[in-house]
Amino acid sequence: MLPRPPLCCTLCFLITLPSFAQSLSVDERVTGLLKQMTLEEKIGQLSQLFMFGPPGPVEEAVTQGRVGSLLFVTDPKVINHLQHVAVEKTRLHIPLIFGFDVIHGFRTIFPVPIAMAASWDPDVATRAQSVAASEAGSVGINWAFAPMLDIARDPRWGRIVEGAGEDPYLGSAMAAAQVRGFQGNSIGAPGHILSCMKHFAGYGAAEGGRDYDASYISETQLRNVYLPPFHAAVEAGFGSAMSAYMDLNDVPATGNRWLLRDVLREEWNFKGFVVSDADAVKSLKVHGYAKNLADAAVLALNAGVDMEMAIGKTAFSEGVADAVKAGQVTLDQIEAADRRILEAKIRLGLFEHPYVDEARSQQILNAAEHRTEALGAAERSAVLLRNEGGLLPLQKGAYKKVAVIGPLADSQLDTIGPWAFQQDLPETITVLAGLRRKFGTGVELNYAQGAQISRKFPSFFDDITHFKPQPAWTPETAREEMEKAVALAKKSDLAILVLGEAQNMAGEAASRESLDLSGQQQQLLEAVVATGKPVVLILINGRPLNIIWASQHVPAILEAWYPGTQGGNAVANLVAGDAVPGGKLPISWPRNVGQIPINYAHNTTQAPENQGKRYWDEESTPLYPFGFGLSYSKFVFSNLKLNAAEIHPDQSVEVTADVENTGSVPADEVAQVYIHQQYGSTSRPVRELKGFQRINVQPNEKKTVRFSLGKRELTYWSTAKREWVEEPSTFDVWLGGDSQAALDSTFRVVP
Ligand code: NOJ
Q1: In terms of Cα–Cα distance, which of 395, 517, 510, 519 is closest to 452?
Q2: Ligand 1 within 6 A of 277 CB?
Q3: What is the CA(278)–ligand 1 centre distance, in A?
Q4: Considering the domain boundaries, does residue 448 fall inside one?
Q5: Ligand 1 center to residue 512 CA distance, Å?
């Protein structure tokens, strides 16, 4: 469908004509549009509004050219209708760009991002986000507010589930992988959409793990840990960025000129546009940073925000016109912001193809191959934490009666996890359903809920996530339900417990002060283990939890995370041995909440070997280290070789080692290489990940893995020198299957 503008605006009409427009460069097209736009229209393009409920109120704003983008519209009919208004009823016929939180799938839900990171397979993330882009794009969504690239080292923070964990190297690999998935080879690639790296920057370091609270991050930590995934994303071609909510070192990220201009634009040469987080511009007033709304708009624009995301109305629409008149913001600045947004719209092809094919979207949303991808992703994301006596995979025919117990065993919504709104809930396979399908009539499977879990304070997402609160059990019912579950375990040959966190216990505004299994899950677990029956614990959750007791008393523990639409099938395949766990932890797993933050890449300081000098009541090591995960097979690393003992800056050393599968099943291992700079202008972390490869190895097969360590891997931000340095020093190298790898060597960098 072609826009039909009034003839009075000939140039503008020509610009919207595909044949004419295509003869112009993107730049020329934008310039042509800017020449005709009034100040109000220019400010309109910088405004993005939420649409909850019927289109009425936002439709009026669209008609008046006061909006450049909408978010939270997912019905293709409504999208087409609103686009029609923008394209045909506004003076300049500029299409809207529709954004949405496409975090780990749209209709087909993939494992949550922390789980995808646990696959240590960037391809998993690329394929998942490519499916998500095609599904979201099919209904008319042009822009995903993902991925979240915030490094998070505090599992109390609920949003740890949305990122790749604690490590900048793994985080950077996952960032680049996701841009390929969302955007394809370039912005506007067919079947793909624009993506948005968020939350720039430092959100993951919220004090106390409390969502939205301020972050205090030294420049060393920012540059070496928190910023690298964003920088990698910019290098990979991300089209947009979202500014974060919180204060970073006392300057709100959304009004932070250093972050948004000096680093993002000047140092990294970022060409995309910056959108604020929801209401983050207006919130500059709440932070005690802006005097009023108009001031907030000026501060944000001057800092480098191009588009304001807001509920109701934007501060930009309130304050920017007057600010231009008062000389607080220049027209050039506004046009520069418009230019970046219009460029994105042109590159996405929105002027040529503003509408979506409603009939085709159903076909895409229902594609069977998307479910197959989701199944594979869930299998590859699971991490086997414990497997005493090789309880898993379950020996075929050994268990005739199996008890499946726990509040998450048969809950579709919880299997999917947070940040999913458009999923096909009835098709979601819970663990119970997956086990039933897998074992058919060969095994008698019985289910008992056993415990109930809920938040102390409700989540503001509950209204939009199809969450239906259940009436709370009375103490008496709780006791009876637990007794039923224990009785069921007693008359079974094996109990599979599915415990963890409900979907609204992780994600935004879902932080916790404790990591204990909530509700009566711990009591339930202990009571079932006390029956003496073999127990498998499946964890459904978005963060490390306190499983110290389980780690000593439950023979098999499988971390399934929130595994998504196909989660139950994936867990069943893993439990049955039709898939072999190969995932690894993207975060150090603390023994208890008091150890937080605990990350493997800490500095070594006074008396490192003396545990008692750290805490006298607990080890200062994690329960499970970063990079850890078991398999149904066994791997031996050997023959670590470096092709040089000494290199000059700018040169690389090649590292090789053999990985042998000494077990009896084909399986995946993740070879990980870590380094440590022994001395230099600042102290360096005890270990830092600098390469990884997930490989499949047959029993008795030996594969050689290769890594290169050069300038990119050895350079870091020296706080002492206040610059990026590659220093002459001696470097330790370790290679193995987790961050405690023992196989080691050294090399030197000499001037
Ligand atoms: C607030 C969240 O912080 C952000 O991640 C999300 O994309 C926006 N809301 C839009 O829903």
Answers
A1: 519
A2: yes
A3: 6
A4: yes
A5: 19
What is the crossing angle of helices 56-63 and 76-89, to 10°?
30
Query: What values do phi and psi take at 636, rounded to 5?
Result: -125, 130
pLDDT digits 0-9 by tens, 275-304: 999 999 999 999 999 999 999 999 999 999
Listed residues 332, 361, 390: the one ending a domain? 361
Total domains in the fold of the chain: 3
Q: How far is the CA of 465 from the centre of ligand 1 (A)?
A: 14
Q: Is residue 127 part of a domain?
A: yes
pLDDT in tens, 405-452: 999 999 999 999 999 999 999 999 999 999 999 999 989 999 999 999
Residue 386 lies in a domain: yes
139 and 69 within one domain? yes
At 574, the amino acid letter reads L
Tally the C-alpha atoms within 13 A of residue 562's C-alpha that lie toward its C-beta.
33
485 with 346, same domain: the answer is no
Taking only the tens place, the pLDDT of each residue in 23-57 is 899 999 999 999 999 999 999 999 999 998 888 88
Model pLDDT for residues 74-126, shown as the tens digit of each residue: 999 999 999 999 999 999 999 999 999 999 999 999 999 999 999 999 999 99
Question: Which residue's CA is the nearest one to ligand 1's atom 7?
Answer: 145
Q: Please indicate whether residue 150, judged by its CB atom, sits closer than 6 Å to ligand 1.
A: no
Determine, yes or no, domain membership for 406.
yes
CA distances from 704 to 660, 666, 669, 744 (A): 9, 16, 12, 16
| pLDDT per position as a tens digit, 303-324 | 999 999 999 999 999 999 999 9
On whether both 335 and 375 belong to a single domain, the answer is no
> For the domain that residue 154 is a member of, what is the CATH number?
3.20.20.300
Range of the domain at 384: 369-590
